[in-house]
Amino acid sequence: xxxxxxxxxxxxxxxxxxxxxxxxxxxxxxAHHNVFLVRAxxxxxxxLTDSGTGAMSAQQWSAMMTGDESYAGSRSFYDLEGVVHxxxxxxxxxxxxxxxxxxxxxFSSVLSPGQSVPNNAHFDTTRANIEFLGxxxxxxxxxxxxxxxxxxxxxxxxxxxxxxxxxxxxxxxxVPIGMLTITNNRTGGQPVSMxxxxxxxxxxxxHGIPFFLDAARFAENAWWIHRLDPEWHDxxxxxxxxxxxxxxxxxxxxAKKDGxxxxxxxxxxxxxxxxxxxxxxxxxxxxxxxxxxxAGRDLAALAQGLREVxxxxxxxxxxxSAQYLADRLGAIGVPIVRPFALHAxxxxxxxxxxxxxxxxxxxxxxxxELYRRGGIRAVEIGTLMFGRKDPVTGEPVVxxxxxxxxxxxxxxxxxxxxxxxxxxFAEMMRETEHARGYEILEEAPxxxxxxxxxxxxxxxxxxxxR
Length: 466
Ligand SMILES: Cc1ncc(COP(=O)(O)O)c(C=O)c1O
Prior knowledge:
The protein is α/β, with parallel strands linked by helices.
């Protein structure tokens, strides 16, 4: 049979309110046309993020009831430590409250001002934590990732030639840590090949640089290696994951993704001296090392989540559900980024709404239309998020792309929810010329997308502007 089933039944449900277009139009107006300012209870299908939004299994919920809440030496910690040892092979395992806590603690332990950290592409919080310490976060994006529609695998790879020549030119001691993010969130959740992982590992080793993975979506990366690399077809997903981790000296994991939990993170390493520094900082800011800022029940749910996430049927279904959305959108002519990722499908809003110039935020126009028509919340990744005003001329500087990300929370939505999303797009595709651009009325000096107040550009102004 061709249909790929959800490999689970639904035991508990979370009802949401079905709202009308009129109601949503009012809500959007009141939220100043910024979906971050819309209350979650006014959203029907929330595709804002895949982080901390997944559904836990019955086994995870029952593990929570048996979580050991002891301050020191919790049984739930030792259980989690055993699972993480088996998965990664790393000697030292520290729980933290989420990914960015691991970033802060790791970078504070190894980085000094003026030093640099290379990566395929740093996630926003990773970059921010490096820059906060006065160091530089450098991206070596693979050239294939620049073409949004090129349907080629491994667009998450690091650009090895660039990295290699850059490393040759660095003064000794100026690169205390090298990284690789799997999957590469900044390039649309694209996976990294095992070949690239191996080459990066030996390059960093040749330069004596400790190699750390940002492994928030390690299971999704392992899935693509298993699916697309003939060398790994016959190996288990656990073998693939273990091999990826085995190439590095440690990792940071935001467990809100492939940990299948709503909160939690991990920081792991092999180096005893580094582990001692991490332990001290952890005690100072997160908590005792056997709970690291989490409740015992959170540790228990995470241990069980890590046992579940490399299940073949789960990852097969995860690919099939992303593919279903990507194929349906592609079939009605919606321009999407290729290949689709497991955690999200990205729409090229600039290509979908070519009559809206980038300064009028085509991505935000699409996000607002999706909410208005379908109660669907997506996120703009474009000029609203990354654009700015030129400090000298005051003119808007637009982002390289205007994308809209449709994130897929794990084990939450069914096929009819996805059909609803596709139907909202189909309505829009029939009358794209009606979509209007947006202008920003108020913005914060940093991270403006989260709080900006906007309004639609009036028809006359839009025409006069062009
Ligand atoms: C690749 C990557 N690294 C780090 C983080 C930060 O994790 P957290 O949100 O748990 O702090 C994220 C979150 O989205 C991420 O995608």
